[in-house]
Amino acid sequence: MSNSKVCVVIGASHGGVNFAFALRKEGWDGEIILFDSDATLPYHRPPLSKAYLTSDDAIDKNLLKSAETYEKDNITLRLGATVRKIDREAQKIILADGSEQAYDKLVYAAGARPFIPPIPGLDQATNCYALRSAADVQGIRESFNASEHKRVVVIGGGYIGLETAASLKKLGGTVTVLEREERILQRVTAPHMSAFFQKLHSDNGVQVLTAKNVSGIEREDGANTVCCDDGARFPADLIIVGVGIRVNSELATEAGLDVDNGIVVNQAAQTSDENIYAIGDCTLHRNPHYDRNIRLESVQNAVDQAKVAAAAICGKAPIYDTIPWFWSDQYDVKLQMVGLSQGYDDIIVREEADDDKRFSVWYFKGDELLSVDAVNYAKAYVLGTKFIKARNKVDKTKIADNSVEFKPGNLLQD
Ligand SMILES: Cc1cc2nc3c(=O)[nH]c(=O)nc-3n(C[C@H](O)[C@H](O)[C@H](O)COP(=O)(O)OP(=O)(O)OC[C@H]3O[C@@H](n4cnc5c(N)ncnc54)[C@H](O)[C@@H]3O)c2cc1C
Q1: Phi-psi category of 247—alpha, beta or left, where left has phi over 0 and alpha has psi -120 to 50?
Q2: Partners of 360 in the beta sheet?
Q3: Fewest Cβ atoms nearer than 10 Å: which of 30, 39, 130, 412?
Q4: What is the reported pLDDT for 2?
Q5: What is the pLDDT of residues 81-134, one digit of tens each?
Q6: How confident is the model at residue 1, as a pLDDT?
């Protein structure tokens, strides 16, 4: 189809790598070149705070694809190569080492980086890590293993902070999570779910403290003390910062693309420049089901948008229209979430009689089902997905009643 054409991808992670293989599958026979600052072969990020952190595995046990698979599909990886500039007029990118690469199509898959809050003393703290990359895990493992007391303070009670807390507890740490808001996971889930995870951590020996605003890090006798604005102080051999991310959108902004809390793309993942597409964590896109613009931080979004961009570049007219989903693993709990709960005005909690660690939370706006959070309950997640997609009218009384068998036909309004 494209013969001598070149498709360049900035970012070789879930978005960029899946895009490259999808583009080949769609029939692109020109060059595909992936650039990434990270020198490691692209790997899965979700296990970094979960099973990978608690294992001794080398990163090659956690790769998205083997080196041979890239070779087989004639996909060129340029790792340890940071892109500094996009020159749209000349249709080329410029790298940190001054070299250049021309493109016919450019795909921006630069994702996000951890947000490091401006806490006084944080930049001087030792053994202090955010968690986004394999190198971060390497640092955390080494500092943790070298530490005598293994006192860990996690700043931020979101998914990454909580998963990391659970993993380091499993490895034998004394772990404290400090959350600024009144409850953990406040931004992303209902009070019932926050309370469940608070208790789960407490039952597993992790101290989770809310309404704790970290105001500074002090260094005493070569050790860190994490200080809060209410006077509380926590000695820490290891500090994990998990307070959210910042989109890597600077190159797009400098190149004059539309950016608004993410690179603005249409339903074919195309930016305001017809030769530049953007996918994954760095995009702001329209979700047709919820009829609003969203930015997502999930593997599902990166992979699905990658397929849409590949199809569009190969001349199809795809429309990105998915129901977002996400998961989190902490201790023996698997949380699966489908849909977007923002704007809900009613919640139904369905507890299962046989197991207090198996339940689901159903979020509604009026009688429209917006989303479902399912704890150790894949069936609730699967049914929720089906109902949301079909815009089925679910009977709230039947959902709440755990004597009603959990089958699609039993749960809809008459
Ligand atoms: C610890 C952790 C746990 C997670 N757990 C889950 C989970 O359970 N479920 C889930 O759905 N999602 C999870 N996520 C989120 C998920 O990993 C992201 O949504 C996904 O990685 C997004 O993929 P992406 O390709 O858009 O961006 P990224 O994965 O951020 O990749 C962007 C890449 O671009 C590169 N890059 C950036 N700028 C440049 C530049 N100028 N030049 C060259 N390269 C550049 C970066 O080095 C990076 O490799 C987790 C993330 C983390 C960090």
Answers
A1: beta
A2: 350, 374
A3: 39
A4: 46
A5: 999 999 999 999 999 999 999 999 999 999 999 999 999 999 999 999 999 999
A6: 47
* pLDDT lower than 50: segments of the chain: 1-2
Q: Report the candidate in 228, 226, 227, 224 with the shortest Cα–Cα distance to residue 237.
A: 224
- What order of strands is seen across the sheet that includes strand 223-228? 214-220, 223-228, 233-236
DSSP run (H or E) holding 203: helix 191-203
In this prediction, residue 106 carries a pLDDT of 99
d(CA 69, CA 90): 32
Q: Say how many C-beta atoms besides its own lie within 10 A of residue 127's C-beta.
A: 19
pLDDT for the residue 3? 58
| CA gap 375, 381 in Å, rounded | 9
Centroid of ligand 1 to alpha carbon of 263 (angstroms): 15
pLDDT value at residue 172: 98
- Of how many residues is the chain composed? 414
**344: three-class secondary structure by DSSP:** coil
| pTM listed for this prediction | 0.97
- Beta strands per DSSP E along 180-282: 207-209, 214-220, 223-228, 233-236, 238-241, 245-247, 263-264, 276-278
Ligand 1 nearest-atom number relative to CA 251: 41
Other C-beta atoms lying within 10 Å of the C-beta of residue 259: 22
> How many angstroms separate the first and last alpha carbons of the chain?
53
Sheet holding 83-87, edge to edge: 83-87, 92-95, 100-102
Give residue ranges with CB within 6 A of ligand 1: 10-11, 13-16, 35-38, 45-46, 48-49, 82-83, 109-112, 131-132, 160, 248, 251, 280-281, 297-300, 302, 326-328
Which helix (H) or strand (E) is 143 found in, with range?
helix 134-146
Report the separation in Å between the CA atom of 289 and the middle of ligand 1, taken as the mean of its atom positions: 25
